[in-house]
Fold these 2 entries.
Entry 1:
Amino acid sequence: METRLLNSFLTVLRAGGITAAAAELGFVQSTVTTHIQTLERLVGTPLLDRHPAGVSPTRAGSLLAEHARQILDLEERMLAELTAAEPSGPIRLWAPESVCAYWLAPALPELRAKLPDVSLSLFPAATRRALAALADRRADLALVLEPSLNPPGVDLVDLGVQQLSLVAASTSDLPRNRPVTPAELAATGVLLLEEGCSYSDELAGLVASSDPTMSPPRFGGIEVAKRCVAAGLGVSLLPTVTVADELADSRLVELRPPAGLAEQHLWLAEPSSRWRSPAVQAVHATLTASIPRI
């Protein structure tokens, strides 16, 4: 059995359909269809249930997927041990936008100097997407911002508390000598990041406790949110490192947030059952040592 057939099968499951899997793999649709049909002939039973919304695994397909992941892990380990004495190869790291831009950027020169043969790719993503990518083999490592975390099948390293700032335009008349109340936030308006961002979702919950009818706007990125705050469209809760320059030159001001917001920790996550290549181990060690100093 060729491992490329297994890889195509897992990609179909992850993408939810043959067309989407073909696009992800860079194949024409007929190639992926042939891979699935070849597997089904080899095992002698259907592996996918086809329906209008896409595909889902049969019982046999679910069993094959579990073994396929183990086989692909073993292949990766064999190739790494046979072909490289030093850490090398591509590493896919998923992390929130703020972490990619403000935490990882200072660490990348050190990582490149230490590991010249490792190619690190960054993929901005909130927690749910990052953890799903680990489970689906699209990510080797992930960094996530959450108050606490205990997902099944994932090993975690707590890299420490990351500071957040509630910011407003410099012209804001919100109080700065006491915590802002949820009612004041609701009246002023809050600008949230995408759903799944833990601290934005928590702020939305506080606002909803004061005004259940309010539906604050969501923004896809921190830079857009910052500019809208500076324009006086509302307040936003953002990682302090991302607004340091704006606070220093008074484009934004920092407010005292309402009580009840949890501390956000930065977690380094990896699958507990997957073999760790030398490159993954080396990047993991470098990030663990570097991130707290940023």
Entry 2:
Amino acid sequence: MAESGGGGMGKGAGIVGGLGCLIVIALIVMVLGVPLLVAVLAGGIAGQLSLDEGEGCADTVSANDGGKTINVPKAFQEPIKKAAKVSGLPEQTVAAQIKAESNFDTQAGSGAGAQGPAQFTPETWARYGQGGDIHDIEDSMSAYGRYMKALREEVKPLAGDDANKLVRLTLAAYNAGPVAVQRAKGVPPFHETQDYVAKITGSAQMTFSGGCKAVEGGKAWNGDLGKGEWTIPLPGGQFTSGYGGRNVPGLPSWAQNHMGVDLSTGGGAPIIAPTDITVTGTLPNDHCVMGKMDAKPGFQFAFCHMKSLEVRKGEKIKRGKQIGVESGFMGGNPSGAAAHLHFEVYRPNCGAGKNGGMNVPYDGCNLDPEPILKEKGAWAK
């Protein structure tokens, strides 16, 4: 199956691009009464994070997200990647943990005697430091990788095949010790430990996911997901493109991002409502349907690139009922890109959608749909 390059609603104008074919679209936008010609090479989609160099999650250094992105100093980027590989943890999780422990300060210390960017106690450093310098980035992150690998192995039997659970248990073991995790057969019921795990996985998802798939152990929404399981919006679809930064030659910087996920069956499959929704509007230029879930927490959704628009604003669609048909429709025309569903999720009560209107990218409301769909049992198999 050819990978669908995805599309998403373009910057402020609902223009969607796909990697499958680069289309030059000219839009006339009226700004203060003056026509502004904007040439858009459609190709990646919108997101909130952009990468400076390299492809790792931890090298996120700039953003168009209102200053929410936490930078990872360049000196830490490669050591974090290496530590992640050794430990078996996602790079985003490693970066978020070091941020929380020391704020990337090599001279950080605590009242309990922990030192360095990874905050090793003297006893633990003696075991895992291998004679290195606790304040040196390379030495400290290498020791961190070995230590977290050991913790991960100790709690692995409790996680089974659940990768998300394994990440959370490893972090819990770091905070409370592996014995406490084993006794509790999960994250111990300690307020400090539970907060620690939630903080690391949450910040890993929200601030270090620029060029990567959804973070194992993390959630894109830290509030209540609501009751009941969902249905995959494209039954039989395979995951083809994730949320975050892109590197597509010829695209403007704002278009080097992807604000949703792409699923594809190869063409012509029905797109359905994952949960009960009310249609809040449509975007004819890219055959997008915007909707808001009826139950709490009230996520807002976008379903894009459908063959045609067959629903209307205000229409209520029950879970599992068809919204449209998978296609490659972009920029007002069939694009020739592989047929796929581009699916976006927006925060409840955020942006224009909170008033029944339609959200647009770059309004700070987008969320990574992958971990949400996974938690609700509606992810591609």
